[in-house]
């Protein structure tokens, strides 16, 4: 984030790193990672076509070219739709990470602390309202393959200690939320907040 804008080269590198990390979580993360990679490709194509390096310049360039319709109806594929879904993906994982960090501070009684349950709550809070039938079904299938946090931690080598992992999760979530807020502000300012459902 640079002030109220986002450097697209850094966003794309961070997005690639994010995909590499999340893909290690297991098969359940594959649809999410594939979606983010597809969105990063849309951003890359638009960025190159417009010859820009910032998110604001990309969005303004697409608007000036008449790519999008009033009321947040975005052309797909476009950089704007790619950025919108990258943001939603970031917020989904921020929500998951925040829940696990809270669990690690004081274990919940009566359940609610599994990665599967956290993912479902994050989905319902962040993404569900934008998913059509096909996307919702794909999420349910992926959710059924969700491993435990212990298995994810073992696969990925997350945190040398519980305290370190909790701090990492809190830091990642806070960074994701800051970035997502800057991105949301730009989308809303330019009437690019597409609220339609996917397929």
TrEMBL record:
<dbReference type="InterPro" id="IPR014830">
    <property type="entry name" value="Glycolipid_transfer_prot_dom"/>
</dbReference>
<dbReference type="GO" id="GO:0005829">
    <property type="term" value="C:cytosol"/>
</dbReference>
<dbReference type="GO" id="GO:0016020">
    <property type="term" value="C:membrane"/>
</dbReference>
<dbReference type="GO" id="GO:1902387">
    <property type="term" value="F:ceramide 1-phosphate binding"/>
</dbReference>
<dbReference type="GO" id="GO:1902388">
    <property type="term" value="F:ceramide 1-phosphate transfer activity"/>
</dbReference>
<protein>
    <recommendedName>
        <fullName>Glycolipid transfer protein domain-containing protein</fullName>
    </recommendedName>
</protein>
<dbReference type="Pfam" id="PF08718">
    <property type="entry name" value="GLTP"/>
</dbReference>
<dbReference type="InterPro" id="IPR036497">
    <property type="entry name" value="GLTP_sf"/>
</dbReference>
<feature type="domain" description="Glycolipid transfer protein">
    <location>
        <begin position="8"/>
        <end position="148"/>
    </location>
</feature>
């Amino acid at each position: 984030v640079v002030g109220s804008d986002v450097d697209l080269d850094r966003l794309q590198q961070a997005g690639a790193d994010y995909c590499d990390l999340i893909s290690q979580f297991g098969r359940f993360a594959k649809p999410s990672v594939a979606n983010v990679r597809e969105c990063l490709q849309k951003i890359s194509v638009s960025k190159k076509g417009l010859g820009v390096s910032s998110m604001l310049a990309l969005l303004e360039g697409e608007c000036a070219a008449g790519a999008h319709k009033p009321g947040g109806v975005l052309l797909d594929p476009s950089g704007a739709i790619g950025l919108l879904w990258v943001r939603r993906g970031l917020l989904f994982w921020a929500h998951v990470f925040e829940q696990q960090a809270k669990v690690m501070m004081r274990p919940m009684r009566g359940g609610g602390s599994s990665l599967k349950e956290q993912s479902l709550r994050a989905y319902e809070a962040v993404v569900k309202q934008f998913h059509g039938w096909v996307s919702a079904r794909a999420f349910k299938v992926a959710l059924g393959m969700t491993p435990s946090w212990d298995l994810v931690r073992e696969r990925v080598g997350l945190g040398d200690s519980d305290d370190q992992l909790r701090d990492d999760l809190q830091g990642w979530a806070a960074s994701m939320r800051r970035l997502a807020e800057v991105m949301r502000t730009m989308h809303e300012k330019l009437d690019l907040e597409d609220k339609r459902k996917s397929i």
